[in-house]
């Protein structure tokens, strides 16, 4: 399966991932509709997550297995993951819907069995979630399949990011993209630290993207302007409640974000100091030297009869001091642009 991630990156374009996660709300029809709507909105890829409650945690009632605060306050981990998971038997149908829509299909495996299952489907790439970035054996196993690796870095220290990148490289896999991520749901703007994006690119020498959980398009636009080549956002259908709907984008918002990101990429292009066609046309309205009074032949040019004004049809303003004190070579009517032949450069005459 051709996977378009690095094609986009090589062309200096932004690859946009629509993350379904739990937003199917327990319905395969909703899942397939999300694929179609994401494609219409301009996504390059639809991503799901491949896990069961048992592959993520255990069915345990101890206090540490219960979430305190936030969007999922009070949930036992096991119950949340059972509620939010995407059934394995839906994966092929979702992947085929992506193929029909002409967008890539991607999933996040959470254990080796999930990697094996996705290999049977011949997925084009693997995404490692922020919470699994410290699971080096899982990263090594997924990376060993030789497919692009997209690694979210929420909560990770610099050392943990380095260990994850090194794990891919130990497996001979250099197809690595790191995603800057703030693992808060939703992510407040002051906590996002998107200035890390260019720094991460220098430190790790791999493409850097953004997994964005913040409100609206602003985070994605700023991330793109700072060099993010991948944007990932959770998307949802109107009226479908799920474990993730509280921080996910409605499809019309997602479509606007895609447009904003594409425009941000255009706006942030450069360096390029060549003038545009429009700028070339505007040059006529720059300043130049003009006679602002009638000047007789032989009369001295002064600050009273010569000024730098718009438009740009005469000598450059930087020549003003060279002109002042010299004499007119012939009569010069008011409003005439000064040119070299109008300036007498022979003081003895």
Characterise the protein shown here.
With 349 residues, the protein is of the alpha/beta class. Helices cover 34% and strands 16% of the residues. The protein has 13 helices and 13 strands. The strands form 3 sheets. Strands 1, 2, 3, 4, 5, 6, 7, 8 and 9 form a 9-stranded parallel beta sheet that branches. Strands 10-11 form a two-stranded antiparallel ribbon. β5, α8 and β6 form a beta-alpha-beta unit. It starts with a helix and ends in a 5-residue tail after the last strand.
What is this entry, summarized?
By secondary structure, this protein is an alpha/beta fold. It is 34% helix and 16% strand.
Order of helices and strands: HEHEHHHEHEHEHEHEHEEHHEEHEE
Radius of gyration: 31 Å
| Strand residue percentage | 15-25%
Q: What would the principal axes of the Cα set say about the shape?
A: elongated
Give the SSE map.
Layout: H1 5-10, E1 15-19, H2 28-41, E2 45-50, H3 53-56, H4 77-84, H5 91-101, E3 104-109, H6 112-121, E4 126-128, H7 136-143, E5 149-152, H8 158-170, E6 176-181, H9 196-204, E7 208-211, H10 218-225, E8 230-236, E9 249-250, H11 251-267, H12 277-282, E10 288-291, E11 306-309, H13 320-323, E12 327-328, E13 343-344
Parallel strand pairs: 1-2, 1-8, 2-3, 4-5, 5-6, 6-7, 7-8, 8-9
Antiparallel strand pairs: 10-11, 12-13
Helix pairs in contact: 2-5, 2-11, 7-8, 10-11
Provide keyphrases for this structure.
single chain; 349 residues; alpha/beta; two-stranded antiparallel sheet; 16% strand
């Amino acid at each position: 399966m051709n996977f378009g991630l690095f094609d986009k990156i090589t062309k200096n374009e932004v690859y946009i991932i629509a993350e379904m996660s739990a937003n199917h709300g327990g319905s395969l029809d909703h899942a397939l509709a999300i694929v179609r709507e994401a494609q219409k909105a301009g996504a390059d890829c639809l991503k799901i997550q491949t896990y069961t409650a048992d592959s993520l945690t255990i069915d345990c009632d101890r206090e540490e297995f219960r979430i305190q605060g936030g969007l999922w306050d009070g949930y036992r981990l096991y119950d949340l993951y059972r509620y939010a998971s995407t059934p394995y038997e839906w994966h092929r149908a979702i992947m085929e819907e992506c193929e029909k829509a002409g967008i890539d299909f991607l999933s996040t495996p959470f254990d080796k069995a999930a990697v094996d299952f996705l290999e049977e489907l011949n997925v084009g790439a693997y995404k490692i979630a922020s919470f699994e970035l410290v699971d080096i054996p899982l990263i090594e196993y997924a990376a060993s399949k030789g497919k692009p690796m997209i690694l979210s870095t929420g909560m990770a220290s610099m050392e943990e990011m380095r260990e994850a990148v090194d794990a891919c490289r130990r497996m001979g896999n250099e197809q690595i993209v790191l995603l800057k991520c703030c693992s808060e749901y939703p992510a407040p703007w002051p906590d996002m630290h998107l200035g890390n994006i260019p720094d991460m690119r220098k430190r790790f020498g791999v493409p850097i993207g953004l997994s964005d959980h913040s409100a609206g398009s602003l985070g994605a636009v700023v991330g793109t302007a700072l060099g993010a080549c991948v944007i990932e956002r959770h998307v949802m259908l109107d009226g479908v409640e799920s474990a993730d709907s509280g921080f996910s984008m409605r499809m019309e918002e997602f479509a606007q974000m895609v447009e904003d990101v594409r425009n941000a990429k255009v706006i942030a292009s450069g360096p390029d100091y060549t003038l545009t066609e429009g700028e070339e046309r505007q040059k006529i309205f720059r300043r130049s030297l003009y006679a602002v009074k009638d000047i007789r032949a032989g009369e001295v040019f002064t600050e009273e009869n010569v000024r730098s004004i718009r438009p740009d049809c005469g000598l450059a303003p930087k020549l003003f001091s060279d002109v002042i004190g010299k004499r007119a070579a012939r009569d010069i009517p008011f409003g005439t642009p000064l040119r070299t032949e109008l300036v007498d450069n022979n003081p003895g005459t």
